[in-house]
Here is the input.
Amino acid sequence: MDFIEANGVALRCELSGGGDRTLVLVHEMGGSLESWDEVAPRFATSRRVLRYDTRGAGLSQKVRGELTLDTMAGDIAALLDQLGIAGKVALAGIAVGGAIALHFAARYPERTSAVAVGSPATGIAAERRAPALERLAKIETAGMAVAVEDSMLNGYAPELRGDIARFERFRTRWLGNDPSSYATIWRMLAAAEMQDELARLRCPVLVIGGSLDRVRPPALAQGVARAIPGARYAEIRTGHYMAVQTPDLLFDCIDEFLKSVSV
Here is the structure.
């Protein structure tokens, strides 16, 4: 693990593996680079793997005020620059991490070889914004604990809790989030409008839906895939926090895709 100051913020990151190809892993909202603990080492046998805590998450610098996807994508570009990684990279992201990965591809097409996203959170339906913002106000006032049960029920389906230690570890880590930073990232998502840029993407894209995801059901993931020219869609038996819940399934899905597009 390392800490790097990039794009005006302190970010915790890890670069593992080796070779000419690089894969950037972007975790979900409420997650951290640990979300990839059981996925990253498998990719690192054949390529360099960069994972990091997004600004506001994990042990990276916390955020207040306005935050945009442009800033989040800029963090990745700055990390790559600081680490001396030139040329194109592949990206894989979950939920909001998927939105960040897709926005990076739109903003930096010359640096992107392919993108794989699971349950990408590319925006919020208008009818959901008011209740969501009300929920965020409660989180900022009372802390993450007021939302943990709903978040786990919808995002970490009981059907996927066979490894109870894995579930409890993720739940406890989720509770450790900074409430104000979590709310800031969520408001960034609420303000996001990505339809136009999705339509402009030209790199290979895989969108993965989770059949047990009750936060962003498969129909929403399919809608994102339809908005991207030539995108592939796959569905696996997983939930919203798929890198944690089903690392084997997720790795196989992304690895097969990257190999199929020679990335």
